[in-house]
């Protein structure tokens, strides 16, 4: 599929995504009323058919009222059931053909059901927040919901002027008419549907650090009453950015924003060029600093270098976990090895039924996957030695920048930096369920 992975549905979420075509651009226009939680949207998807003629295809979209669907400007036949918008164009689309799909939808957005509770569009006490990983994107817009299908995005949101709208990417325009304001954001970098972040709330906007010439602009959108605590908790983020650029290569996007919602979130969530935190992650004593490092690291591992499907999630979480340990090591905290010893001790006491490669849908967000993923990266560091490991790490993020990868892509990549074969390391840490001893 021209640059995409093989044409199979995601084994963990077979109803999500359609590998018979790929989208290269989304243009989404939303009108949102926070009081009644009312959303009206129009979207244009610019796409390319795969290797076979397309007589039909589908998009993922939750339970909205559909106003209109067009394919290349003509009305197709369509059905909309169970989160799937099945479309049969008036004329079959030839293999490799470019085509557009226009959809109008409206309704009251709500999270989509998943094994981890509701995902996607969440109505807050005052505003809204989108956290879609892994399958929440259809809760607010029609998409080809598979991580390997990455596209550029333009998102326009019209909402009452009291609210700030934050999306991943560059703010192109902000236009106020009467009591409403339209915010237009552009994200040119290839982006997976689950990484399209959006937040609407009462925020103060501040800049973090001075990006200097050629530096990354880092902004934050924070409720006013949390600003004093936020200023202390996030004070070292510019230093993290500097370290991660040194270790992983240039930051892969145009800018980086963080949002702190005015309510508690279970965990922070990464989006493209954007991370979302809860008020509970801001305590004024840097209690969540490792999470700030974790979410920032995802911009390289997960967002820029993206997994082909959810079986490979350890490549996102293991590397982000290891980045926490590297930040600790380089900023005067415990060394990565001390962190690994503690993680290994904790995992030894837990069930030994998780394989990093293909953990299964039930365990893909198990906290053991994060710890074990970090340990696997540490074991590879030990096997390669310092110089080769850091060269391998930087090249991994650079060579596959904005690309799609799998575990096999990674094992082949890392093997090129090894003096001796890594098969035993891979076998023990990635493919076996029982926890191997920690390399010393």
TrEMBL record:
<dbReference type="InterPro" id="IPR034015">
    <property type="entry name" value="M1_LTA4H"/>
</dbReference>
<keyword id="KW-0862">Zinc</keyword>
<feature type="domain" description="Peptidase M1 membrane alanine aminopeptidase">
    <location>
        <begin position="239"/>
        <end position="429"/>
    </location>
</feature>
<keyword id="KW-0378">Hydrolase</keyword>
<keyword id="KW-0963">Cytoplasm</keyword>
<dbReference type="Pfam" id="PF17900">
    <property type="entry name" value="Peptidase_M1_N"/>
</dbReference>
<keyword id="KW-0645">Protease</keyword>
<protein>
    <recommendedName>
        <fullName>Aminopeptidase N</fullName>
        <ecNumber>3.4.11.2</ecNumber>
    </recommendedName>
</protein>
<comment type="similarity">
    <text>Belongs to the peptidase M1 family.</text>
</comment>
<dbReference type="InterPro" id="IPR001930">
    <property type="entry name" value="Peptidase_M1"/>
</dbReference>
<keyword id="KW-0479">Metal-binding</keyword>
<dbReference type="InterPro" id="IPR045357">
    <property type="entry name" value="Aminopeptidase_N-like_N"/>
</dbReference>
<dbReference type="Pfam" id="PF01433">
    <property type="entry name" value="Peptidase_M1"/>
</dbReference>
<dbReference type="InterPro" id="IPR014782">
    <property type="entry name" value="Peptidase_M1_dom"/>
</dbReference>
<dbReference type="InterPro" id="IPR042097">
    <property type="entry name" value="Aminopeptidase_N-like_N_sf"/>
</dbReference>
<dbReference type="InterPro" id="IPR027268">
    <property type="entry name" value="Peptidase_M4/M1_CTD_sf"/>
</dbReference>
<keyword id="KW-0482">Metalloprotease</keyword>
<feature type="domain" description="Aminopeptidase N-like N-terminal">
    <location>
        <begin position="133"/>
        <end position="195"/>
    </location>
</feature>
């Amino acid at each position: 599929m021209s640059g995409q992975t093989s044409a199979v549905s995601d084994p963990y979420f077979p109803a999500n995504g359609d590998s018979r075509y790929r989208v290269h651009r989304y243009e989404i226009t939303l009108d949102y009323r926070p009081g009644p939680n009312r959303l009206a949207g129009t979207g244009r998807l610019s796409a390319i058919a795969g290797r076979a003629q397309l007589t039909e295809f589908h998009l993922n979209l939750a339970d909205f009222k559909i106003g209109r669907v067009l394919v290349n400007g003509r009305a197709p036949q369509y059905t909309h059931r169970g989160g799937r918008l099945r479309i049969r164009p008036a004329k079959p689309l030839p293999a490799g053909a470019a085509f557009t799909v226009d959809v109008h939808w409206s309704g009251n957005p709500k999270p989509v059901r998943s094994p981890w509770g509701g995902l996607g569009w969440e109505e807050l006490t005052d505003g809204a927040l989108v956290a879609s990983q892994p399958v929440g994107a259809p809760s607010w817009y029609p998409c080809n919901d598979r991580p390997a299908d990455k596209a550029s995005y333009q998102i326009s949101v019209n909402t009452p002027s009291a609210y700030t709208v934050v999306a991943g990417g560059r703010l192109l325009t902000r236009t106020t008419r009467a009591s409403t304001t339209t915010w237009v954001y552009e994200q040119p970098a290839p982006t997976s549907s689950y990484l399209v972040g959006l937040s609407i709330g009462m925020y103060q906007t501040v800049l973090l650090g001075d990006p200097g010439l050629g530096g990354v602009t880092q902004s934050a959108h924070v409720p006013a009453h949390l600003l004093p605590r936020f200023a202390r908790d996030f004070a070292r983020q510019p230093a993290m950015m500097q370290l991660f650029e040194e270790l992983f290569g240039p930051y892969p996007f145009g800018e980086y924003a963080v949002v702190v919602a005015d309510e508690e979130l279970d965990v922070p969530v990464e989006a493209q060029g954007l991370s979302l935190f809860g008020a509970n992650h801001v305590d004024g004593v840097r209690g969540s600093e490792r999470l700030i490092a974790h979410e920032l690291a995802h911009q390289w591992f997960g967002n820029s270098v993206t997994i082909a499907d959810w079986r490979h999630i350890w490549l996102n979480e293991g590397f982000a976990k290891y980045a926490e340990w590297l930040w600790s090591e380089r900023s005067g905290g415990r060394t990565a090895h001390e962190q690994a010893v503690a993680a290994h001790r904790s995992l030894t006491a837990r069930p030994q039924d998780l394989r990093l490669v293909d953990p299964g849908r039930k365990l893909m967000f198990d906290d053991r996957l994060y710890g074990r993923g970090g340990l696997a990266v540490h074991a590879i560091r030990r096997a390669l030695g310092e110089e080769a490991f850091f060269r391998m790490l930087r090249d991994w993020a650079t060579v596959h920048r904005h690309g799609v990868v799998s575990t096999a892509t990674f094992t082949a990549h890392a093997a090129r930096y090894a003096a001796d074969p890594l098969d035993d390391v891979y076998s023990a840490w990635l493919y076996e369920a029982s926890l191997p001893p920690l390399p010393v």
